[in-house]
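Retro notes, item 3 of 5
We never archived the inputs for the pyridoxal-5'-phosphate complex last cycle. Fixing that now. Sequence and ligand:
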Amino acid sequence: MSNNHYKIETEAIHAGQPPDPTTGAITTPIFQTSTYVQEGVGGHKGFEYSRTDNPTRSALQECLATLEGGRFGLSFSSGMSAISTVLSLLKSGDHVVSSDDVYGGTYRVFEQVFRDFGLTFTYVNTSEIAEIEAAIKPETKLVWIETPTNPLLKITDLAAVANLCKDRGVISCVDNTFATPYFQKPLSHGIDIVAHSVTKYLGGHADTVGGALITSNDKYYERLKFCQNAVGAVPGPFDCWLILRGLKTLAVRMERHEKNAMAISNWLSDHPKVRKVIYPGLENHPQHETARKQMSGFGGLISFEIDGSQDDAVRFLDLVKIFALAESLGGVESLIEHPGLMTHASIPAEVRREKGLSDSLIRISVGIENVNDLISDLDQAFSEL
Ligand SMILES: *Cc1c(COP(=O)(O)O)cnc(C)c1O
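Structure as it came back at the time:
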């Protein structure tokens, strides 16, 4: 379906997007159509109905597959619908081992939707391979990894997980939303399936919601493609087009996100009102070596604990001016949030504390603005605190 001739900067602009054969349009058109006229019964051009296939979506799927170094890509209406579709590979009675610091919505759909269908879940610190190994049971069918995790930015060794899962005959799936294929390619480490919220860095402009799955495994692809159509949580052509447009600048955006995040995490580390800075690019990050081994950059997310109470953290969010108070991440604009009260509020307070998600923890998604403006903004907020 896709081939990898060029480097990722080039593929992001060209993969799956040759000039339109009928008009020469350099930009893939928005095929805003639900159905396709057939020349005779069964005589179609590869497209019958837009839930099943749409040319704008096909272009996006091929581009995403190429960027991840996979054979097959599938696009969805949201990251959550992509994640839910992975679970369609399982049956009642199956067991899943998951990172204990997953995206709040992933935890919610596991616990509050799929548990009722007879799936069971065990959450472990996947940074410790032994913990995954100990949690695998005869009925385990899937290991679900996020790396870096959200919001504690813990790193899991992808090659070690892939080897363990192959050994045990378990499907490995990695949510690669935070790193993006620009910094990390899980399939190249032997992982079976990559999941994305393309809402974040891949779209990159905070203007649409979407998801994706990428795999090189024929059997998983066939079932996932079947469920993409059967369940029907597909993105519209205009959303696909917006994501294709965002992808063209993925490389330059990720470079700047990371450069800004590195500078800000160093600045925060020296600040007297900061208790702790979590960023995989810092040498004091507990899995910094693993991050260096499997990532070509450390991304744009930073979590930090301010030296104060939850009220102080909430006040800090009010004091910043450039950083917008919002959920989500990965757009060109810098965002700030309180995981305990916002993105991870669906996780019970006791569970949050057990995981090390403290009440004074703040997460920032560092945008691509001028880094000195961003630092000055944080600085003035600290002095007002
Ligand atoms: C946002 C996010 C999701 C969910 O994606 P949606 O597009 O919001 O449905 C899943 N995983 C991670 C890591 C995310 O950041």
